[in-house]
Amino acid sequence: MTGNATDTDRYPTLTEAGRRMLAFMREHPCAPQYRNHSGNRLLPHEVALARAAEASVPYAPFLWRPGSEPPWLPAFIAETFARVPYYRAQGTPPGRLADLVTIARADLAHDVTRFVPDDADAARLLNFRTTGTTGHPLQVPSHPLVAARYLAYHKRALRRFGIELRHGAGQVGVILLGFQQRCFTYVSVTPTMGESGLAKLNLHPVDWRDPEHRARYLDAMAPEVISGDPLSFAELLRLPMTWRPRALLSVSMQLLPGLRRELETRFDCPVLDLYSMNEVGPVGVFDAQCGGHVLLQPELYVEILHRDGKPVPLGERGEVTVSGGFNTCLPLLRYRTGDFASLVDGDAAPILRDLSGRAPVRYRRADGSWVNNIDVTHALQALPLTHFTVHQDSAGALTLRLDRHGQQWAAAAEAALRALMGSVPLRVDLLADEDKVVQYTSAIPEAIA
């Protein structure tokens, strides 16, 4: 959301209090360089709808259990077949969900427009670029109200740990952390929380006049919640920040137990490990007492499938496959996430156990410094690559594998990686025709945060 948009476009309901909050975050003496502009884009009636979702979603019951389909599923299938070009091309919807062919990220990456409903408001569509861990970079269609509803599911997760958000007018509610050489950064306000401040900032020193400003700025903002990934949280642990948020939310990548314990000790607050993806939003939150990730979306049906597409016996591991969700711009049926877990019943909601999700990876450059996998994606994103992997061996040599389609850009991809990584040994190879691969891997022990 850049270009010629104004603050009125970005924040249609902005009040004077909201303007003061934006100025406070932008103009603080220790503020970072905010490189981009963004905003909630919510119209007045959408603010009311988002507020209603935040009031109801944390308490909404699950109407299905593992092994039994939800009562809303047949109507969702029929509506999706009627409104979405990809499904409508398949003809009459089948009588059972199990008769539907599964889809995967490769299908969306090939042409995501086929999965957008006919009646989606094209003038207000948003696109979120995903980096992911598979060789399929993707732009996910969304809408301001869909983006706003993330907070409702985050509130559901926080409520599980006894936390009710309180920050409102004149306070900073959430700071989103990145730690990349290049990062999308901005300030915004949350209208459903009294225009409390929201900022996405990059902890990498490149975005700051002085690296010491990072801790000072975070202390001055005093956010109620800090959200990030294991890479940015590992950097946060190195800063002399004194502020104690009420919770940390780890998203996008797998949070290992050791790092979670270190964060809990340092900041004396719950650290929520959210299983989330741009395609469907927050899926589950880890609860040690339940032994897994408790599902967060009552309107998202989860199956666990064999590689052949058939359901595994109840409680066995397989691929997490989802139908439904709250992204009205991308209704999905039997979408294979590429992540693996078992599904068991819980008191209030089903639980994913032994989830194998996205692990953060960083790469060692020729000078011994590190870049993370998102920086690698940024280095290659100008090229129309749809399927690739990057691996670094224990000696530091890199292998970039491209599928047959991407071979025509091999030289350009190699040059882009050399510009990022320096003089490390690098070769480009052919990637076998697989749908799901682990995109970023390394044999260097320090590469995993």
Give a quick account of the main beta sheet: strands, pairing sense, barrel closure: 13 strands, mixed
Structural class: alpha/beta
**Number of H/I helices:** 12
Number of domains: 3
Shape label = globular
Organism: Pseudoduganella lurida
Keywords: Ligase
GO molecular function: ligase activity
Protein name: Phenylacetate-CoA ligase
What does this structure look like?
This protein has 449 residues and is α/β, with parallel strands linked by helices. It has 3 domains: 7-59 and 164-269, no CATH class; 73-145 and 277-356, no CATH class; 362-447, GMP Synthetase, Chain A, domain 3 (2-Layer Sandwich), CATH 3.30.300.30. It has helices spanning 7-10, 16-27, 44-56, 73-83, 85-88, 105-110, 144-160, 213-221, 230-236, 257-267, 373-380, 410-421, and strands spanning 103-104, 126-130, 138-142, 172-178, 186-190, 196-202, 225-228, 247-250, 271-277, 281-287, 292-295, 300-305, 318-324, 332-344, 351-356, 362-364, 370-372, 388-392, 398-402, 426-430, 440-442. The strands form 4 sheets. Strands 1, 4, 5, 6, 7, 8, 9, 10, 11, 12, 13, 14 and 15 form a 13-stranded mixed β-sheet that branches. It has a 4-stranded mixed β-sheet with strand order 20-19-18-21, with helices on one face. α3 (44-56) packs parallel to α7 and α11 (373-380) packs across α12 (410-421). It starts with 6 loop residues before the first helix and ends in a 7-residue tail after the last strand. The model has no long low-confidence stretch (mean pLDDT 91).
